[in-house]
Amino acid sequence: MGYAVRDLGKGSRPFGVLERLRALILTGEYGPDERLIEEQLAERLGVSRTPVRQALTMLEAEGLVELAPNRGATVCSFSFEDVWDIYDLRAVLEGHAARRAAGRIERHELERLRELAGEMEGLPGRFDDHEEEIRALVALNQEFHGTIVEASRNRRLERLINRTVEIPLMFKAFFWYTPHERIISNHYHRQILEALEKGDADRAEIIMREHVYEGRDFVIGALKEEMNA
Questions:
Q1: Which of 24, 40, 62, 226 places its Cα 20 to 30 Å from the Cα of 170?
Q2: Rounded CA separation 23/14 (Å)
């Protein structure tokens, strides 16, 4: 439903190595454009080079790593311009989707949005592992936004949004989120849901845009802090 979300990986080898490598990238242990040398990673993780190589291939599919001939693996980077472009497009496209959805969304979709909003609000404290919690949060958030996009009843718009959303960037944004940012995001979700329930297309579009721009400003600030650390 909605956005196409790739499998973020769970379980035993090579997924155990995948999870650990992903966490090292998302928490900043390996920064943007930094080379990932198989031999060094294998030594650090206490495994052979084979599961490391497999994990790097999976991370490339997720958009976190770039693999190039004669250079090997490097961590993908998002410039400030990338973030501005991605979030500006999302604000326009998802805002329009919310506007259309206000007049087309069905009762069962509204009920699902209400359930998803409640699940996101109830996530803190449910997981011992932070990365596992973030995976769950990303999935719930994607379904929430994806349900609204689907309710717009515009397949062309849905395809455009699927191509615009950068899952790795969103995953990292949620890694950076503090409880305060979580509360703000959840508040926007409730306000969007209320506008859709009332069929208020103007308000649904405005709040969706504000929600996306709030995320953009936070990510820009977090990137600047990471660069200056």
A1: 40
A2: 14
